[in-house]
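job 3f2a | input accepted
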Amino acid sequence: MREITGSKVFSTIISFIKPYWYMVALCLLGTIFGTAVDVIQAKLLQYVVDSAIAGKQEFFIKIVFLLVLIMLFSSLIKYVIKYFSGHLGISVIRDVRSRIAYCLQKLPARYIELHHSGDIISRINNDVGAIQGFVEGNLTNLVYYPLIILGISLYLIYLNWKLLVVSLIILPISMIASNKLGNAIGKYSVQLQQEFAKFNSIIQDVTGGIFIVKSYNIENLMFDKLKTITENILDKKIKTDRRCMAIAPISMILGVIPNMSCILYGGYLTILGEITPGELLTFTYLLGFLIGPIAGIPNMIVAIKITLQSSKRIIEILEEPEERQDGTEFDEKDCEKVVEFASVSYAYDKGKYALNKLNLCLKKGKVTALVGSSGSGKSTVCKLLCGFYEHYEGEIKIYGESMKYWSLKGIRKQISFMSQDTILFPCSIYENISFGRIGATKEEVIEAAKAANAHEFISKLSNGYETIIGERGATLSGGQRQRIAIARAILKDSPIVLLDEPTSALDVKSERMVKVGLERFLKDRTVLIIAHRLSTVENADEIIVMNEGNVVGYGTHKELIEKNDLYRRLYYKQFSLPQEGEDACV
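job 3f2a | predicted structure (586 res):
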């Protein structure tokens, strides 16, 4: 991906802020009024001191009363700015997270395969949180600081330019040091976010695979990985904090030295009669308003650096090319060849071809099985047919129409896909089944469960169809999860069915119950089965044998046993049976 520039980051942030221009306008107006009020307030302080020294009691009381009103008005303005900047931050971050969620759903499956979910979650939580902090705390300061610095500086120059120069003589050195520290902090901030992403990834791996972790006694190994990452996080955090702590003295110097210089040199000018005591108090008071933003600039630089780096990680997701949204939903046609692969080749990341000029055909109402050793390209066929990968060579047709002209949604409506790794969501059984067809009635959901041989066990659960099944269906057995998946597929009622050996991980009893549900479902449908256990496809209408992305044989089980060496070797090896001409093991 091309490098994301700072201007690109800011333009993206502005695009999210734009819908809330009225909040920004209120904050800006409040900032302008607030700056003017601060100057007026300081001028009134001058009148208070000078009138008190001159003994003008009546004028003194009026000025004090006016000063109190001005202070109350100033507090109201600051409340309005704080309220709307906070509301702006919340609204912008809601939109950013919604946009990311939308983009993630539109991204190609290949992107999700190549990026760990822990890294994606880290971007949504940690990086978006950094942007929120900037929008709420520093966005208005980008306008407020220049305004207050310009307005106060002009007035202080009017009061006494020599006193202002003496007060701010150390400023250039401090700003150069702050900028260098800010660059270093930005670099370590990126590394810190990357380490947090790794930490999230391992935590997810451990919690998702807790039974494997425990059964293989690799708790210590995983703990060591986490420990290494936490040490890296600590190292990067210390390096970041050291530079942040180095900025603190700079901010303190910016806050103390100007005031000390102002008081000492201002007292000298008062003795000389160049300024009055009231003007010195006004100058000192306004200098605090000037030094505050100037002292805050180093911290704001740090916040901007961190926000830039976090925003780049967010923009990487937002600018990732989406799945295509064009194409037509063709009607299901009454043709013999439902699916055709014509000289189809596909390679992962410019590597070795997973499929190499593959030709195959799925006929209407027939069961076709794909068999072959691991890595022969069987799963790639399914992923291409579902439209998960699109940059392939050759042509794939569904109902005689090229997939390149089909809409992806239209393709997926035609297909029900089931794998041995059954994916269920942490909600109720009813919801999991109803995902097959949004808007289905309760009666239709129950009928689908009955057809899948799942209604009986669901009814025996404490909350029936409303039972929450936990993450990935962890509270159910493998057979129960598969039957719910079958019910979901039955409800979808698609004419094409892809099965990635959905019964291979089940015990005999569960397999029998799942097969009953499958047999009801598969009747009169066009079926493609990826077979790991060849015994499950002996009765398929056609078996296609694959090897290194090519078709090396096809026919019925009987035909292939007789004439295809690879199929015969796979079959006999799987059952540990001697091939023809070999002696049986004794």
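job 3f2a | Strands lie at 337-347, 353-363, 367-372, 393-398, 401-402, 415-419, 496-500, 526-530, 542-547, 550-555.
job 3f2a | closed
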